[in-house]
Amino acid sequence: MPKLKIFLKNLGPGLLFASMAIGTSHLVLSTKAGAQYGWVMVIPIILANLLKYPFFEFGIRYTNVTGRSLIEGYRRRGKGWLWLYAFITLMTTFTILAALYVVTAGLFINLFDLPDLSVATVALGLFLFISAILIIGRYKFLEDSLKVVVSILFIALLITTVLVIFKGQVSPVPNFEREPIFNDVGILFLIGLIGWMPTAVEASSWISLWSLAKYKLSGNKPSLKEALQEFNSGYLMTALLAIFFLIIGWMTLYGTNTELSGNAVTFADQVVQLFTTHIGNWAYIFIAVSAFATMFSTCMTAHDAISRVSLDIIGYLTPENKDFSRRRHYAAGVIVLALVNFVVVTVFSANMGILVSLATFISFVLAPVVGYMNLKNVMSHDLPREFWPKKWLQGLTFAGIIFLTLFALYYCWIELS
């Protein structure tokens, strides 16, 4: 019991990571993976979660030991490192948030049966509502609310997965043939799946900043072992939920030749209907609310994190500005991100497919770079050598960097050939 109390007290960054990660990569990509390619796609999902693990773990390790964010670590390695990460953040900020809000808006329209509303209008309402929540509640509200939301989501999706398995796999259409994985279309899908599974690698700095916020809120910093235990629980949850969504897509759609739409509203309807058709109409509200809550919590955590990261980068790039306060400018950062991403949503005409493809491509190509930057941080003189990652973790890091680099090079070869 004492260990459980310590764990619950330290609950925070890992929980927020789980909430943020259980979004488009799970609801959209994992479901599509199972629907189009079947159970075999569990292999790249497990590989992605395993090979990316060190990149995120280093965000907890560096901040817990040094009391600094990963972004400050980049600055200490050299200003060029910070500028590079600023560029990566700029490129991903206006695609990831927009994609998340588009999917969430589609689910909202479906849940409340509001076909006359446009995705852009609902997205604007979500931007305003979530911005208000973040500005008023900040980190404490995020942590407190997500303890409830993520717990309910995990239980709900576990029950749904069990029901789907109990119901049995849908009968395939006559002469069904599985789509090939290792052609150009299959490889591009794999790149998107791995690129955003469990989430973008640059989100490692998000965990770092959430850890700092947690330590400041609680007035107590846990040991590295305790901090990693809390993070590992959240990371394991994201991996399990990805497999749940894969199973649901596989059991309910694989073999039916159903094509999942790139339009947010149509896709939202397909996701909810594939559950209810297989389980029963009685499950509609249960499933629709779970799916919407999944995306809503992801939007909230990603919006908060990107605001914090942007302000941290600005602060370290303009050290001469003594009046700049990350805390004081937090509200402005949240509002600016909402406005800019609403413009992105409007320009892309709420086409979820384009937004998700762009966001996943950028995250995938730049993942090895961010992974290497994180490794340099945790193996620098900022940390005593006893806190450096073990040899096996270093080896796993290099394996992940090589794996992601080869995939990125192959993608570029496909595009240029």
Automatic annotation (TrEMBL):
The keyword Signal does not apply. The chain crosses the membrane at residues 40-60, 81-111, 117-136, 148-166, 186-213, 234-253, 282-302, 330-348, 354-375, 396-416. It comes from the Bacteria. It is found in: Membrane. The keyword Membrane applies. GO terms for cellular component: membrane. Keywords: Membrane, Transmembrane, Transmembrane helix. Signal peptide: none annotated. GO terms for molecular function: metal ion transmembrane transporter activity. Gene3D superfamilies: Amino acid/polyamine transporter I. InterPro entries: NRAMP_fam (IPR001046). Its main location: membrane. It is a multi-pass membrane protein. NCBIfam families: Nramp_1 (NF037982). This is Nramp family divalent metal transporter.
